[in-house]
Amino acid sequence: MNPAPTPRRILLAVTGLTPQVVTETLYALACRKESPWVPDEIHLITTATGAENARLNLLLPGGWFHRLCADYQLPAIDFLVENIHILTDAAGRALDDIRTPEQNTLAADFITETVRRLTETADSELHVSIAGGRKTMGYYLGYALSLYGRLQDRLSHVLVSDPYETNREFYYPTPYDHPIHSRRGDKEITVDARNAQVDLADIPFVRLREGLPERLLTGTARFSQAVAAAQCSGREISLTFDLAAHTVTAGGEAVKLTPQNFTLLLWLARRRLASREPVHCRVYDSNRDAAHEYLALCRELFGAHGHETERAESGLKNGMDSTWFSPAKSRLNKALVKALGENGAQPYCIHPVGKRSDARFGLTLGPDHIRVQE
């Protein structure tokens, strides 16, 4: 048997005017004695000025990134100019700094979308460093990872010993003597980069990805939208039907449902409002009463000769059993999860009640949380 493919390792960092954080973090990850972690590719998020600093200091022939790889004989790492992602304004112009509230919002959205894209597939492993750039950039990057991070993803901050931490000539501890100039008080001194101590502080973070709806996992994500969706579990629980418009809202969020999904959810909600027991739909045990109720609701909503009514009559001509109900239940639950996220959808999904061998199905949402606008 062929071994499972190794996840694509990605190092993502924010930088400002000090691209040293890239080589410091790479050294701390890839050159440690125990469990070295060598990325397959490196990505940066920065300003226009930060991008030029990174290009000139790290990526030119003989730049510090290439020197680090050569000094420690690291395998090939994909780190090109194209991997430097420059923050832009609303018109697509590169930003030189982040100062105004509008620029902060743009930076938050840019960082969030970058993290979403890099975590979109399961075959990647993302390590995020928040050591560089403005504090707001580090905050947004850490929060974005909290929103989109998976079990395999990590967050860290690099720690460099004094007096190397603020020294612009220092990029990583060299495996040979490398004198650099520094200051101690009013005096200028020379120190050896070889003696620097570089450590990585692993930062635990809360993973909120399971609470996000599918549209924010697979489509362009704005920071404010992702945060609002992650907070869905804290919203007031309510399920409201508008029969005239054939629409439903859950927790104040509009949920797009097919006619069958809408009918099934409304049927079970009405049963819940009437304090009726959940429905049994077993294999080879047709529930004719349930089928009659469901078809009556179809006629009420779509008319006796409506397309959805005729489709339901064809599917339920022998009553309602698990061969019809189970796929219908799964489609409805998937639609709710897609709209509300895994956590946000749970109060409104169809759940089994009772032992598995004799389970019935219905809504567990309390009647006080259901409203039907006739």
Are there runs of 5+ residues with pLDDT below 50, and where?
none
Count of distinct structural domains: 2
Tally of separate helices: 11
Helix content: 25-40%
Shape: elongated
Strand content: 15-25%
Mean pLDDT value:
88
CATH class of the largest domain: Alpha Beta
Query: What is the topology, as strand order, of the major beta sheet?
Result: 3-2-1-4-5-8
CATH topology title of the largest domain: Rossmann fold
Radius of gyration: 28 Å
Helix-and-strand structural type:
alpha/beta
Number of strands: 14
Describe this structure as you would to a colleague.
It is a single chain. A hairpin with a 2-residue loop joins strand 6 and strand 7. This protein folds into two domains: 8-229, Rossmann fold; 236-373, Arc Repressor Mutant, subunit A (Orthogonal Bundle), CATH 1.10.10.10. The model has no long low-confidence stretch (mean pLDDT 88). Helix content is 37%, strand content 18%. It has helices at residues 20-30, 48-59, 64-71, 101-118, 135-148, 214-218, 223-230, 259-273, 288-302, 307-315, 322-345; strands spanning 8-14, 41-46, 84-86, 124-129, 154-160, 179-184, 187-192, 198-202, 239-242, 247-250, 253-255, 350-353, 360-363, 370-373. It is α/β, with parallel strands linked by helices and 374 residues long. The chain has eleven helices and 14 strands. Helix 8 (259-273) crosses helix 11 (322-345) and helix 9 runs antiparallel to helix 10 (307-315). It has a six-stranded mixed β-sheet. It is elongated and about 90 Å long.
